[in-house]
Amino acid sequence: MRRIVVGILAHVDAGKTTLSEGMLYLSGRIQRLGRVDKGDAYLDTHDLERERGITIFSKQAVFEFADTEFTLLDTPGHVDFSTEMERTLQVLDCAILVISGADGVQGHTGTIWRLLSLYKVPVFIFVNKMDQPQADRAALLEELRAVLSDRCVDFGAENFLEQVAMCHEELMEEYLAADDLTASAIQEAVFKRRVFPVYFGSALKLEGVLEFMEGLARYAKEPRHSREFGARVFKISRDEQGSRLTHLKITGGTLRVRDAVSGGDWEEKIHQIRLYSGEKYEVVQEIGAGAICAVTGLTRTRPGDGLGVDVGARPPVLEPVLSYRIILPAGWDARTMLPKLKELEEEEPALRIVWDEQLQEIQVQLMGEVQTEIIQRLIDERFGVQVQFDEGRILYKETIANAVEGVGHFEPMGHYAEVHLLLEPGERGSGLEFALGCSEDILAKNWQRLILTHLQEKTHVGVLTGSPITDMKITLVAGRAHKSHTAGGDFREATYRAVRQGLKEAKSVLLEPYYSFRLEVPEKQVGRAMSDVEKMQGVWELAPSQGETAVLVGSAPVVNMRNYHKEVTAYTRGLGRLSLSVEGYRPCHNAEEVVTSFGYDSERDVQNPTGSVFFINGTSVLVSWQEVKRYMHVEPFPAPGKAGRNKARLSVCACWTVRPGL
Asked: Closest by alpha carbon to 217, among 94, 52, 394?
């Protein structure tokens, strides 16, 4: 029997969980249909999900259909929990993207589509709620082709084979030769993302669901798996007894109970293998490639880790944009609470716990305000502590607008290291890219690799507000070690200082997060909506109206729009609707004001020094960043009259990208 892992994704309220229920019911996995609004959906197992009527935690169900074993991963649709959705993408064989026929392609749908493209996941599209009067099949298909891809094909149309053939040259050649296309040819095209099958129906009424399942079974391809053991971790959780569960996909070979598995610098044994479906699970002694399971016995795994031969995880794209201070009840010490929250952070990738040593307080970084309520509840349930949050603040980032060479030197008595880094601005949303462009004639390979490790191990911060840097390429172009006085820690100090010295010389740019939005208001109030968006420093355009409802789409700074949904509810008397999705980071609209409010002094940040240490006249001297290049031991890059040598330096031999943005 074929084995396929399929994820189901959607903008919130598109009917994703309802479609999951329908598929499980028609496959015979469940005997009756649950309802989200009634709180009895098979996959919404947590009390919070049943109360709110939304999916918060990803779950799985296993069902068989048409000689295929499907593992269905149901993911959250709300933008605040999108990191939970993203981490499942790395283990999918294909995805089901649910679109609301009443709303079309919404803001968060675009984010999901870009992530699916980034992770190269084949996609089947189910346009739901076609029983609603405003759902127009032809118009929706046209929108899918315009907004998502022109390779979206209605597989329910009479001429769908002709439409599929037009998506790629190889398909057209086969179609012209045989006046037909084989199922295997279509399956291969879907697998290579050359075609995106589209089906229409109503999950609530089970209309079109069976046809969709037949198409999924016919055209989804089972990937090839390695014979050697490999696995990819995508989730950490704990059961009711507190046992730590590592959820993973077997990407190759076989996993057995008591097997020792390795994850880089550690090795641990598997105690138990569980196959979950909903709340229930089955214990097995071994599991083969292509399956999703949860195991006990592993204590050092993290989401995104590769086990065995499966290595090289992609860093997550979606990151928190808001930070809150956790306010503990009387009698609770922050240092006592910190390890408990770190345990919760391990299970929730959207939750980042930060200890501020200077302020002696715990801060939590989140995607949105809905999360604060969920986190409060989870902390209370798990630890019996009722915490509060402050009003929160925006998480800013920094980049540079020009290329510079940063130099770091570390030479107290008995130590020596010098590092030269080329800092260049990258494209918006590109994250941090680290590269080697230094000849081994200048610096030995082992030292170069060590410097690269130091570049990746730390969150480097900018000089405007002390916020993390991004959208930048940092290339090692030169360096120097001493035969007897250089130790590994010396290059760590020199590397950190080189980054900071370069940032001080460069023209820094403050970045802030932006929301993309879809705003629906009664037509008579569209003027108010336009004015509000402009006041929030946003941009907008009118989308096709829906009856007497006007639709605005656009983008605006998170800091200005984060509480706007309350205003929309008030001035439309509950008739308006605001849909938000994190779009990424852009130059800050009020940078000077924000920099002033932070009051950050890069010269006094002892954790991130900008100057270097030189050994001058028999003593160690701290040299300010402005003077470092007067004292440096390696000539600057590029050096005048040394074109050949510089060309050798820029022979890039390694490259890493860290946390790319959308």
From this structure: 94
